[in-house]
Automatic annotation (TrEMBL):
PANTHER family: CONSERVED PROTEIN, GLYOXALASE-RELATED
SUPFAM superfamilies named among the record's database cross-references: Glyoxalase/Bleomycin resistance protein/Dihydroxybiphenyl dioxygenase (SSF54593)
Pfam families referenced in this protein's UniProt entry, alphabetically: Glyoxalase
Protein name, UniProt field: VOC family protein
Amino acid sequence: MTVVTTHRLGEPCWVDYAASDVPRARDFYTALFGWTAEEAGEEYGGYLTFLKDGHRVAGLGPAMEGAQPNTWLTYLLVEDAEAAEQTAKKAGAEVVAPTMTVGDQGRLAVIADPGGAVVGLWDPEQHRGFELVAEVGGLAWHELYARSYAAQVEFYTRAFGWSTQVLGDTADFRYVTFGDPSSPAGGVYDADAMLPPGVPSHWVVYFGVADAAAASERVVELGGSVVRDPWDSEFGTFAQVTDPLGGLFFLHQVRSRE
């Protein structure tokens, strides 16, 4: 089992879900991935932490007023949330939620990049982020669907020090990965021609499953829907699904390393 204890600066370190119906979302994700839900104290507003085999995977909380409900939010690791917020703003980002302290867990801010994709910044104290990577029931990949591809890649490179590697650079498939070339943390996809009208740039998350086809069937049994049936590629087997509240995510078939 690949247990992560540290994350690289500027790269994804946490994801959480803002739900319009927390109990329904909790029941769906625990049933689908075999997660358990640990409730934080009242001072954290009903926030839940999902665990897989005792390891932190993701969070869940009620959607805040004015925030888009039923979406997954990716957080990037920063050393100083307030400084990172200002750096991002100077590089062209819009501040959605200014830096705030979350008890003894850490500090966070939320920004929208120059292409409109919303992403969180996490400056950790007690909460160090997700602990499972590329495992069944863990985070498997992070991806930015970009409408302003070149500008967004440049933004993250400037604001967060990303090192990128070109995976494809054609009209049909324009994509870079970011992070250590031997173990990239995620990718940026030029999705402008693919996204429906009115759908802005956004981050998506992939969760590891043992069997993408079986997991897709389970999604439907639990009240979700399959947006794209499982497909094979040179990078693995994937499926695109939504939960019962409409929250979009991907399934990535992985081989668990016990």
